[in-house]
Every structure is written in C-alpha cells, then in structure tokens.
Design goal:
- By secondary structure, the protein is an alpha+beta fold.
- It has one domain.
- Helix content is 31%, strand content 22%.
Amino acid sequence: MELSNAVRARQRGMSIVEVLIALTILAMALLSLMPLFTGAVKIAASSYQLANANTRVRERLEELTGYPRSDSRLTIPDGANAAVPAGVTTTGSGSVVAVNPACNNDLPSWYEASTGKVSSASTSPGPGWYVYPYVRTYTVEQFDGTLANRVTAPSAYIAKLVTVTVRPTRGPFPGLRQTTQSLYLRFPNG
C-alpha cells in the first residue's frame, strides 16, 4: 500500500493554479507577437499596391510605344518642348510645358467589385460602386541627339521621353506608393 501511494504522489497532475499561470504566460507571449502580424498584413497590402501600380505603368508605356510618334497622344503643341496633364506646370529646368488632354488620367473613376464593371462618371453610378484606387498620368518631352537638350516643337527632334506615373488613391498608404517609369522613344528616322 505504501508503494502505491508513493507512485500516485509522483504521477500527480498539475493544479489549476499551475495551469492558469501557464496560460497567462502563453497569452502574454502571443499578445507580444500581435504587432508583428499586423505589420506583416500592412506590408503585404503595400507590396500588392506597388505591384499593381507598376503593372499599370508598364501597360501604359507599352501602349504608348506602339503609337506613331506623330500620334495625338504623343504630340507636343507648337512652342513647347513638353506635353503634360492638366494641373502640371513643369517637368524640370528648361521645360516649356503645354497641356495635352491625352496625358490626363485614363483610368476609370469608379468600379463595381461584384461585376468588375468600370465607369468614368463624375459621381458614383450607384450602390456597390467604389472609387477606382489608382490615377495614371504621363508626360512627353522632346530631345535632340544628345538627349540632354529639349527641343521646342515643331522643330525636328531625335527622341521623345515618355514618363508615366501611377499614384494610388486608396489603400494602406494612399499616395505614398507612387511609381514613375520613363522610356525614350527614338524618332524612326533619327
């Protein structure tokens, strides 16, 4: 009988107080890791937003590359050496800018998440429509053969510099994950 009491004493389980202390320590450890999870979610959302912005920039650059250099979307009005969207006044030193409406935002203003439809209406088309999360604009500049001096239209030029900018308007960091990419378009006979 003494042997069985000694074995039972060694096989005794944890008391309720010991279990509560262990659970408290575990909860504190998990709570201290919580900021890491929320930070990871924000970083993932920001990376997704930047990847989408880069994709939209590349789409527009590829589209503009396919147009003839004299196309209205790539033309620079006479007396200027840069075409810009409305609201932009300069593209750097030595620039004489003119507004080209084709350079304005070409993305829709609204989208319906359930159907994938988009709209360019100035106000919401109705319930279930959300503000489109990106704005895309571009500028066009003309350069001589050195690619350092801007050429005023209608003079001859060697290359056009197209710079596309996509700016998020919604999401975890609206406006902070803006992406800008440029591409020289060589004049076919230059």
